[in-house]
Amino acid sequence: MATATVANHDSASHDHHDHEHHDNFVTKYIFTQDHKMIGKQFLITGMFWALIGGFLSILFRLQLGFPEMDLSFLRPLLGGWIDEAGKLDPTFYLALVTMHGTIMVFFVLTAGLSGTFSNYLIPLQIGARDMASGFMNMLSYWFFFVSGVIMFISLFIKTGPAGGGWVVYPPLSALEQAIPGSGLGMTLWLVAMTFFIASSLLGGINYITTVINLRTKGMSFSRLPLTIWAFFLTAVIGLLSFPVLFAAALLLVFDRSFGTSFYLSDIYIGGEALPNTGGSPVLYQHLFWFFGHPEVYIVLLPALGITSEVIATNSRKPIFGYKAMIISMLGITILSFIVWAHHMFVSGMNPFLGSIFMFLTLIIAVPSAVKVFNYLTTLWRGNLIFTPAMLFSIGLVSFFISGGLTGIFLGNSAIDIQLHDTYFVVAHFHLVMGSASFFGLMAGVYHWFPKMFGRMMDAKLGYIHFWLTFTGVYLVFFPMHYIGIAGFPRRYYSWTNFEFANMYTDLNMFVSVAAIITFTAQFIFIFNFFYSMYRGRKATLNPWRSNTLEWTTPLHPGHGNWPGEIPTVYRWPYDYSKPGAEEDFIPQTVPLSATPESNLPHEQELVKLELEIMKEDEEVLVANESKH
Amino acid sequence: MYGFLIGVGVLLLLSIIWMVYRIQTLVTVVKGSDKKIASGSNKVNAMLFIVFLVGLGALMFWYSIKEFDNYQLPIASEHGIVTDQLFWITMAVTGVVFLITHVLLFVFPYKYQYSETRKASFYPDNNKLEIIWTIVPGIVLAGLVISGWMAWSDITAPAPEKAHVVEIMGYQFAWEVRYPGTDNVLGDYDYRLITASNSHGIDFTDKNSIDDFPSPVVVIPKGEPVLFKIRARDVLHSVFAPHMRLKMDAVPGMPTRFWFVPTKTTAEMRIELNNPDFNYEIACTEICGKGHFGMRKVIEVVEPEAYQKWIAEQQSFIKLNPALAEGLPADTKELAEIQLKEN
Q1: Which of A362, A525, B163, B248 has its CA 20 to 30 A from that of B212?
Q2: Are B201 and B273 in a shared domain?
Q3: Closest chain B residue to A572, measured at CA
Q4: What's the pTM value of the predicted model, to 2 decimals?
Q5: What angle is formed at CA A599 by the lines to CA A598 and CA A602, rounded to 5 degrees?
Q6: Do B153 and B199 lie in a common domain?
Q7: Of the candidates B38, B134, B238, which has its C-beta nearest A421's C-beta?
Q8: What is the ipTM of this complex?
């Protein structure tokens, strides 16, 4: 069966090659079905959104760090949202916070990260011509694009974009009377998210199908690179959780537009008592977080997968505990679905539920800890090459530790009473989810840029970019722990109304300055990215001397990836610095029988089997030839 | 003019950076270091990890110690002592892990930086190690969870019967407070009864509501259990009393509660902090709209005797606005009239 699939694909690829010359601009760059181009589309769109999302955060950091500042100079951009005195409108402040969260979580770290690298790497690393369905893959991008267009438009409407926080809890998000952003802005938010969910599901189904069905000969699950494991499990999580978000959003649409009472009850607002009774805002929270917590891992797992690959390659060492890594990712996948209510300890839900979810939540810390220890052991006694990708990967591990440890505070319901919805939470998730995933994205771009564009990014600029960003991120988010322990609540336009929070203006100013510098530093990357795309040094075929399959393709792989047959895989992807081997890496395509000097005893036993299989293949090939 | 000069300056700066960048690229090409597996930058990056570790580590310790009294809010409730203790135990445990892992994470890059003469150890797995670092964190976390769970169970247990009841209702954008009066039972309410003069929507046909009274501040006695009955009128809010280590969402349509025992009066805290203007405060911690950042309410903790005295001095809703008693059924009306006649 496997051979048959491979053979079919071969013939298909020949067709592709014939077609390639007929590719016009539209089918090559816009409505493309080539997974590589779709990956790049996701990446560029993700970068665009990252700049918008980052810029929004600078706007509200200006308000928080410099509350007295005259913001009149922003009027050409923000218009009426800056009042006559040059102050930012408090409603728009909430809209900025909301849009920053929505954009970063969904458009940058879900689509930009998972969309880019799942698309780009899955077929290349498992040895497939393309995704299982190129057409669905194309739809996936264009649904995302439409979603982005709608969300972008919502930024400019008169009543402002959605302003109820990225979690859009009803009744605030359901009632236009409560906040202007809950009018048209919220409608557009819901429409955009519907398209986004459709995009994620189309992508996810494709990733799962491709990984299960289109692996090349010899690429068993126990030989998959950890990146693929991570993308695969991410897609599974997405497939199971995004529909729940859709359900939550749909009920919200019903409440907003059709007079139902799923989430609304006993509300007196704007001088009138609404007729809704019997609904529960807590129901929405359960549904939202049933999606929302797995979403954290949708964002994080791909980054961890990329890191595993980059750290192993640049340590010139096998990733430590390959199986343990897979088991912990599986553990995280399953546990991620049963910890959601730790976001709701003080939501008014039954405290008994709180106890249960505290136990479950702290269990999930164990596989995360295992991953960290495995990364550390991989570095131990390695031969470390600090490519920019490697630096970002080490940075990721650092954020994962720092942000993960504060999760132990927040997962403890007794401690969470005080810390819930304070800046401690902001610090926690920006480190563990935001920055860690962002660093995973960066590591991925630096590492696979030569494959994507056939040229190298400038390493020195990469170093500068890394050190500015790494230091910058810590200087932005570490101080927030202090502010949070002091009890400063989130989503506050200003803290001067309260005596307990009427301090730390200096620290907030410091954070804002650090944020501006960190944001500015990203332009080094933008420059490096686009400049290197056209003018960078020509890359070699395998610049990082890596083992995985994508580096066996030509410098500019066409649609179909390998010009001839798809290579067969004979070993796992982490044979770095194997004792006895001449080079410090042995690509997956090198048969065990070709490396008797470095085979481990159990591998030597496999050699005989391998030779038999190769002989059979040879016979099949000869038989096929004679048929022609 | 000013803008023009800034523009020229920026342009100049960018062109200098551009020049430096081009020159350094050319230099690397000439030196041939771009052909090497690891250039001189490798050493620099390895060093920088150590600099980073020492620099930011020192900054963290210095600031954490210097600012301790600022970020550590004084505790004013019994359970707050317990949760803060848990917080600092967790801080100690995670702090040790944080330090060890970060020292390793940043020292390894320095120690094992690339060298042409060395080969990395081929060390793919060790099941014993995996089991150890699965079980040890498991045990530590179990300890933390169990102590947290015990505290949580105590805090969320039903309030003692003698607890003083205070109702706190959130709306855009303030809190309103209602006391149950001498019977310590709050009267019924219904959001459909809300009017300009009855902002709580109190149902005055319920006898228990006759002696209910409002208050501009939350006054509670020290050393006695207090039960906050929390509700919201329009959107979600959340009652947060940082010094009490108390937080509970206010949910429209679903009353919530939180009980606690205050341990220090406002006056005592003023002396302790040497701040005659100190007040306990309530803030809102669930995004609720434009005025989210301004929902302040003051809590005044007093001695129990002063509390009883204060209660006795308060005037009920009915007393403050006799019109509310109009149109009540006969028996409740009678009670209302007694209220009105008192004092």
Answers
A1: B248
A2: yes
A3: B124
A4: 0.93
A5: 160
A6: no
A7: B238
A8: 0.93
